[in-house]
Amino acid sequence: MKILYGKSTTFFLVLLFLFSISKLYSQQNSRLIKTNPSGTDVLDDKNEKIGTTPFDLDKLDKKNSSIKLVKDNYYPIEIKLFEKRNKNSSFFQLISDCSTCLIGIEENDYVLKLTKIFKEYDATILVGIEDPILEIDENTVIGEINGSKKKLKDKDIYRYLGYPQNMQFMVLNSFKDSYITAQYFSDKISEKDVSNLQNPKVIFKPIVKKLSFNLEGRLLRDYSGKCSIDCEWQLYDLSDLKTPISSFLVTVDYYRTGNNYELILHEMIALSEIKLLETESLYDLLVLTEKKHLEQSKGEKINIALSTQKKYQNITDMLKETSSSVVTVETEKKFGSGVFISDNGYIITNYHVIEGEKTVFVRIDKEKKIKAEIIKSNKDFDLAILKVDVNSKGLSFNKNSTNLGEDVYAIGTPLDKKLQQSVSKGIISGYREFNGVNFIQMDTNINSGNSGGPLLNLKGEIIGINTLKATGENVAGIGFSIPSSLVLKMLNIVD
User: Fold this and answer.
1) Residue 307, number of CB atoms within 10 A of its CB
2) Per-residue pLDDT tens for 266-287?
3) Is it true that 125-296 and 302-494 share their CATH fold?
4) Which of 19, 327, 333, 379 is spaced 20 to 30 A from 194 at the CA atom?
5) DSSP type of residue 116
6) What secondary structure does DSSP assign to 161-174, as a single string?
7) Which 3 state secondary structure label does DSSP give 202?
8) Domain 125-296 in CATH 3.40.50
9) 3-state secondary structure (DSSP) of residue 384
10) Domain range list for the chain
11) Closest alpha carbon to 259 in 222, 227, 225, 224
């Protein structure tokens, strides 16, 4: 028997190719709803369970126009289906709307990928997100739309891809409900900020390394097909925006469904963020980076002979004596408050009061105005030390813990320089942490100009430096003070 080896081999390969194509076609046109992980509950539009995945779509009542996929520890997926459903159409061809769908491709089959519920932590962390950078050659083919190859240099490419500079909302919104409080960040904005107290200390720069899409449709909202992105999320410390601390390369392969108004690149970046958040060690790294930055901000030690605690006969006597230790800090353009902490002229105030100023004056009373020297500052904690050449009566720092509901007094120069050494009373109404900094929250009435003034307890001790006030319509009586222990630590004051 004679065997035609070459022809037989060719025939076999052709059969194998046709089998593979038919298998892929049948899988992509499957009526089965498949998920990763499998065993996900399928609910109808009345939220009643009708099965688990893989689920045969033919078992769904024709009157149902939506389904929900639910599994413990994963975010649910809500899917709207076309009311008129062709029996020959695959499940994915019948989706009319699914904003939470992430469709992966596994073994040549389309699979709905569920997203794990973000792990909860005691505190969120503020992270700055820069505009994405496309690190792709403009002559490289990045995808196809209706068979037409697309490159970054194409005239109309950003009309449906989306500009990297116009996606702040999409980028920030994707971190919602996670342990990251996202804030738009740029070098230019950071340079204009008077202090870093409300700025993120940890920065992410998303670098898009690769894009791929093969879409079909008449308009952007109709485009559907395979998409892929490789995005490198580079992590930086605010103090060094040139050298990344770490980086995470995130690859997302998915299927874009029709009835989708999102711009292609915006959608890709958002999906890469969700996958980034699944990194187990990410939260600990973000916290450590923030903590290191804040610890380094305190600088070299400074020796100051701090004032010792004084005793007062009563509250009236205490307020009269301590008020004389509170000063108005003046510059050419603004003013705030400050407090003597030693008997030889050292003053604590807020950094934003003296920021950008070369000449600073301290008004001790209505008649006495003295030029002050800026000794040290900490922009991250909005603190500064001044020195004037006078004998002063400094106030002592409280070294014990404070209590919720404790009576407190704020002294400063609110709103107008003529209101120097004004006193307001309140209570400690809470303790808050924001952006890695702990605050005392009080309902004491403070206003612009109170910044840098002391918050005192009934003994006349400094328990904090008044720094922030909540503002807005119908908002009153919410102020924040940096605790005295943190003031001493982050200015690195040694007695």
Assistant:
1) 21
2) 889 988 998 899 898 999 999 9
3) no
4) 327
5) B
6) H--GGG-HHHHHHT
7) strand
8) yes
9) strand
10) 28-113, 125-296, 302-494
11) 222
Q: Counting Cβ atoms within 10 Å, is residue 381 exposed (0-12), middle (13-18) or buried (19+)?
A: buried
Residue-wise pLDDT for 62-111, tens only, equals: 888 889 999 998 889 888 888 777 777 777 777 777 766 777 767 767 78
Model pLDDT, residue 485: 92
- One-letter amino acid of 448: S
Closest by CA position to 28, among listed 111, 87, 110: 110
Please, are residues 236 and 244 in contact by the beta-carbon 8 Å criterion? yes
Q: How far apart are CA 446 and CA 451, in angstroms?
A: 8
d(Cα 74, Cα 18) in Å, to the nearest integer?
38
Give the amino acid at 342. Answer: S
Task: State the pLDDT confidence band at 20, using cuts at 50, 70 and 90.
Answer: very low
**Burial class (CB within 10 angstroms; exposed 0-12, middle 13-18, buried 19+) of 4:** exposed
Sign of torsion over alpha carbons 147, 151, 154, 159:
positive
pLDDT of res. 72: 92
Name the fold adopted by 302-494: Thrombin, subunit H (2.40.10)
Count of C-beta atoms within a 10 Å radius of residue 108: 12
Tokens of 17: 């190719």
Query: Exposed, middle or buried, 21 (CB in 10 Å: 0-12/13-18/19+)?
Result: exposed
Q: How far is CA 452 from CA 155, 164, 457, in A?
A: 54, 40, 16
DSSP string computed for 442-469: E-----TT-TT-EEE-TTS-EEEEEEEE
Query: pTM here?
Result: 0.76
DSSP state of 388: -
Phi, psi torsion values for 351, nearest 5 degrees = -60, -40
**Structure token digits, residue 45:** 């539009």
142 Ramachandran zone, left/alpha/beta (phi>0; psi -120 to 50)? alpha
